[in-house]
Write a structure and sequence with these properties.
The complex is a heterodimer of chains A (about 110) and B (about 120). Chain A is mainly beta and about 110 residues long. Chain A is built from no helices and eleven strands. With about 120 residues, chain B is mainly β. In chain B, about 0% of the residues lie in helices and about 50% in strands. The model of chain B has no long low-confidence stretch (mean pLDDT about 95). Chain B is globular. Classes of the chains: A mainly beta (about 110), B mainly beta (about 120). The interface between A and B is medium-sized, with 21 and 22 residues.
């Protein structure tokens, strides 16, 4: 089973700042990694898939990069609605499909 | 538009079973695998299993093997997830989630979630 480790656990930033979130895999997932956003009381939302492809309707301030075992989600300039928990997920090696433990982006 | 509508909240006693439904609409039901993902209170996301609606083939996370069964009814475009031998640690919100690329990929549309509470 591929284990995904996200860091940091919590990121405290102000609106307008750049957010950089990390996801590290226990073995290579090639480019088969996605990112989700989840706000309190809401279902997760697919943001990025296959490392760098934005899902439908996702603003271009969200971008993904990486390959193999190290991946990054970057939010170029935080908007108030971006404060949420972000999860990575791999589809390279299954079953199971696995998620990271999440990074909470909170307002400073 | 794609919609996944799940059945309502459940309260169960330890040792019991629960069966949750997920009715799909707005797309070709047979063309996209359906997943089940759960989230315990204040915790992260955990994948449980998957079904190919066209053929009924399933696969489950090892930790749920023997306790989880996913089925489908193509006549009503509904997927079901049954979890047996419930324990308090199974208290969670259970989501169905459509596979984004068709099979074994990501989750683009989610049901609203079904809260299952296991308590004596």
């Amino acid at each position: 089973e591929i284990v995904l480790t996200q860091s940091p656990a919590t990121l405290s930033l102000s609106p307008g700042e750049r957010a950089t979130l990390s996801c590290r895999a226990s073995q290579s997932v090639r480019s088969y990694l996605a990112w989700y956003q989840q706000k309190p009381g809401q279902t997760p939302r697919l943001l990025i898939y296959d490392t760098s492809n934005r899902a439908t309707g996702v603003p271009d301030r969200f971008s993904g990069s990486g390959s193999g075992t190290d991946f990054t989600l970057t939010i170029s300039s935080l908007e108030p609605e971006d404060f949420a928990v972000y999860y990575c997920q791999q589809r390279s090696n299954w079953p199971p499909l696995t998620f990271g433990g999440g990074t909470k982006v909170e307002m400073k | 538009q794609v919609q996944l509508v799940q059945s309502g909240a459940e309260v169960k006693k330890p040792g019991a079973s629960v069966k949750i439904s997920c009715k799909a609409s707005g797309y070709n039901f047979n063309a996209y695998f359906m997943n089940w993902v759960r989230q315990a209170p204040g915790q992260g996301l955990e994948w449980m299993g998957i079904i190919d609606p066209s053929g009924g083939t399933t696969s489950y996370a090892q930790r749920f093997q023997g306790r989880v069964t996913v089925t489908r009814d193509t006549s009503t475009s509904t997927v079901y997830m049954e979890l047996s031998s419930l324990r308090s640690e199974d208290t969670a919100v259970y989501y169905c989630a459509r596979d984004h690329l068709g099979s074994w990929s990501y989750f683009d549309f989610w049901g609203q979630g079904t809260l299952v509470t296991v308590s004596s």
